[in-house]
Design a protein that fits this description.
mainly alpha, 8 helices, Retrotransposon gag domain-containing protein, Retrotrans_gag_dom
Length: 171
């Protein structure tokens, strides 16, 4: 028995050309301005940018990897130090002591020496008082033997000119 369309009409496949005509009639006409063609792509410049982006990503990944490895080394060092020197945390560790031990272990001596020299030669110059104070605090970590003595700390903080004036006044 032959298949019939709706309402006893002819088979559905004969109706298909009419559907295509209706779809064409219902398709919207393009609206708005016609855009100009895209400019040609300079693939040399494109590839340079792509290579630069990949290199930047590689540098970032290398830096993150180095940071993670350093953090792991520091974690292992600290866990060992807690067990051996501080009786598994039974003895409290002051922050200053932790920082001193950390610098001894992880900051090379020549870097510590350079930072200490920066501390001794620190002058306010064009820095604001807040900037100078921040730099003083940052560098003073590398000269704890100086900043523990309040008189010496004041001399350093006031700068070399103040020391000379104080000495001239006999103070």
């Amino acid at each position: 028995m032959a298949s019939r369309g709706r309402h006893g009409e002819a088979p559905a496949h004969e109706d298909e050309p009419r559907r295509d005509e209706r779809a064409e009639q219902q398709a919207p006409d393009p609206q708005g301005p016609v855009l100009p063609p895209l400019p040609p792509v300079d693939y040399g410049v494109f590839m340079q940018g792509l290579v630069q982006a990949m290199q930047t990503q590689a540098h970032t990944q290398a830096a993150l990897q180095a940071q993670l490895e350093a953090q792991e080394r520091a974690d292992v060092w600290w866990a060992s130090l807690l067990r051996t020197r501080f009786e598994d945390g039974a003895i409290d560790v002051a922050w200053d002591e932790f920082m001193r031990l950390f610098r001894v272990k992880f900051v090379p001596e020549h870097v510590q020496d350079r930072m200490e020299q920066g501390f001794f030669s620190l002058a306010q110059g064009s820095m604001t008082v807040l900037e100078y104070e921040a730099r003083f605090s940052e560098l003073s970590k590398y000269a704890p033997h100086i900043v523990t003595d309040e008189r010496r700390k004041t001399e350093i903080r006031d700068g070399p000119e103040a020391i000379t004036e104080d000495e001239a006044r006999g103070v």
